[in-house]
Specification:
Helices cover 66% and strands 0% of the residues. It is mostly helical. 18% of the residues are buried. The mean pLDDT is 89.
Amino acid sequence: MKLNLGVIFVIFVPLVGIAVLIYEFARPPWSPMRIAGLVLMFPALSLLTVARFQLGNSFSVSPQAKKLVTHGIYSRIRNPIYFFGTFVVAGLFLFLERPYLLLLIVPLLILQVTRARAEGRVLEERFGDEYRRYKASTWF
């Protein structure tokens, strides 16, 4: 995959931001909430990064139908970036010991579902039955 500005913006900038936050807040005491946040955040961040690389040049900010990606994580979950991104945010809030920020997950979920539906419509228009079969065999 060619390294482009989209990859840098969507993968590396958030990773650096999260690394800086973890570094700044990584001092004792290590409460169960902070540990739970890391346990939630790191696997989700890893899977989000893998999903972004698997999406390749099909990534776009606005819904586009460049290619129907159905391999890797996308063979099971249609929108892994949204799915795992939500867990990264939740884990970060817990790690920062700001559980009240978890309330922001509700509008985030609404936004993610809205975006996923819009993308689904664009993909269905472009790929028709192929997308409908793919959709029937995957989750979210």
